Amino acid sequence: MKSIIILSFILSIISFSNGTIVKCTSASCSSLNNNCVNHYCNPRAGCYGIDKCVRIDACHIVSCDLNNGSCINTKANCDDGDPCTDDFCHNGYGCFSLPNNKHPSVICQKNCNDNNPCTDDFCDFTNTCQHTLKNCEDNDFCTIDSCGPNGCVHTNISCDDNDPCTSDFCSIMYGCYHEQIECSIKVPCSTDIECNRYNLCETYTCDLISNICKYSTKFCNGFPCINNECMTGVIYN
Ligand SMILES: *[C@@H]1O[C@H](CO)[C@@H](O)[C@H](O)[C@H]1NC(C)=O
Ligand SMILES: *[C@@H]1O[C@H](CO)[C@@H](O)[C@H](O)[C@H]1NC(C)=O
Question: What domain of life does the UniProt record list for this protein's source (predicted)?
């Protein structure tokens, strides 16, 4: 009997859109696009912009040419102006300085290589080997960074939220995000908890008159909620 009721709910699909506040559409947001910023729609919060240009690593700063969308990565200047340090750049964590061998009483000459691909090895100004854990952070929120026998490993994350009512994307700036899409399957329910889709960007309740789940987007002070988190940034409306 229950399965017949569920089937009849599924067959009585009309649309998901009643009760949804639609502040924007993909088309209205993409009209804000320029050569440097793509805009996306969060139907409740409005359009939001994501820069197209990404810095290639922590040793560069990036800018975007509005005329032709060219991304310009410029090497960071790591010079700290201190003659007692040598200045370096590590593409994971950026500029750093080490005391140099110009200290009068110390000559650093050890080979500090420990053959561990997960450490950075250097000889400090007291002629002592130092091994610091390699920083594998690649500034890409779509990967999980770890270190293994061959050094840094960057593993893609899956953004699939198993929710037929969202399209799933990954942005290297924000990680996973999920755009609500029109969803024609109404979820039958008798208690609120049956409506839980484990999406912290929405609130859910079971409408006890229709026995159909009702979802609404979590209120984030006007900002989109992406990947279970309220975003901050620039909203164009
Ligand atoms: C974009 O414009 C800048 C400045 O005029 C120029 O230096 C650059 O070469 C252009 N890039 C492309 C791909 O046309
Ligand atoms: C990881 O994701 C990137 C960007 O989407 C893609 O180019 C690459 O092929 C993926 N790598 C693997 C092993 O799936």
Answer: Eukaryota
